[in-house]
Specification:
It is built from 8 helices and 14 strands. By secondary structure, the chain is α/β, with parallel strands linked by helices. The longest helix is centred in the first third of the chain and has 16 residues, at 67-82.
Length: 313
């Protein structure tokens, strides 16, 4: 039987339900019905309450810790596979565990590689994600990966600010490639922070490579976790004579004392996407929705159309 091109079903994981609803609205559809049964010990079981036989299924959910979020995505994909879905596309705005993309010391896992294999084993035939922590994670998959860039959201916003003396900054050496890509589009200068860590999430020393005197600085990163690096970088730049410091970070993990650090910092504004829902509101945090970006790419995937127009960088 030949199915029409619009014959897709969209489902949302509970941890990303608000974003899934927004994506479905931009897609021009409603989310499918999923029922969750929960046992006393916390074990849960999803159940699709409508037929998906022969359909393309989009399952929308970020996989930030806790591991229950990843498990929910896996169980839903396995259920779709066993319900005879034709294609199962995992829409993962934030790909969790991505910081484990290599062995940086002996006897540690490459967690991102393991997660990629688990997703494929559960039934994923395609992955759509955004701003991976490391580009090479795409190569961990044997299935197609559409790696979207939040720059298509951030760059128009930065242009709307009409900032004079704009300088793009990377909060660490690893993000310099991203900073240079933004600077090329915005025709601005670049500075880089060099940091030394005492241990994970703890910075012992930070130096600034470049001049920020009299500049409106925008720090660029793929995620903000404890906000220690960003707030430290903002303080250093203001000490070095910057006019203002903003930050754009795709994924707002914001754990530990992140909200407190941001409120107490010299950051004028932190701009993030809704790939991860905020745990609390802050006057310093502005959220740009990625729903339209994902919905457009999902429509193109469903209709076998090119998605190259969705990329700025």
């Amino acid at each position: 039987m030949n199915y029409p091109l619009n014959n897709a079903k969209l489902f949302g994981c509970r941890q990303s339900m608000d974003l899934a609803i927004a994506i479905a609205d931009k897609y021009g559809a409603t989310l499918g019905k999923v029922n969750f049964s929960t046992f006393s010990d916390g074990e849960f079981q999803p159940s699709f309450e409508e037929s998906i036989r022969g359909r393309r299924v989009f399952i929308i959910g970020s996989t930030q810790p806790s591991s229950d979020h990843l498990m929910e995505m896996l169980l839903m994909m396995d259920a779709a596979k066993r319900a005879s879905a034709r294609h199962i596309t995992a829409v993962i705005p934030y790909f969790g565990w991505a910081r484990q993309d290599r062995k940086d010391k002996p006897r540690v896992p490459i967690g991102a590689k393991m997660i990629a294999k688990i997703l494929e084993s559960a039934g994923a035939t395609r992955i759509i994600t955004m701003d991976l922590h490391a580009d090479q994670i795409q190569g961990f998959f044997e299935k197609p990966v559409d790696h979207l860039f939040a720059s298509s959201l951030f760059i128009p916003y930065l242009k709307s600010l009409n900032l004079s003396d704009l300088t793009i900054a990377s909060p660490d050496m690893g993000g310099s490639k991203r900073a240079y890509a933004y600077a090329k589009v915005l025709e601005s200068d670049v500075v880089v922070c060099y940091k030394q860590r005492q241990k994970a999430n703890v910075i012992s020393h930070m130096e600034l490579i470049g001049d920020v005197t009299g500049k409106n600085v925008v720090l660029v990163d793929d995620m903000v976790d404890t906000a220690g690096t960003l707030t430290k970088a903002a303080d250093v730049m203001m000490e070095r004579g910057a006019k203002s410091v903003r930050a754009i970070c795709t994924h707002a993990i914001l754990s530990g004392k992140a909200y407190e650090r941001i409120e107490d910092s010299q950051l004028l504004e932190l701009i993030v996407t809704d790939s991860i829902p905020l745990k609390q509101q802050s006057n310093k945090i502005r959220v740009l929705s990625c729903a339209e970006l994902f919905a457009g790419v999902m429509q193109s995937v469903q209709n076998n159309e090119s998605i190259s127009d969705n990329f700025i960088m």
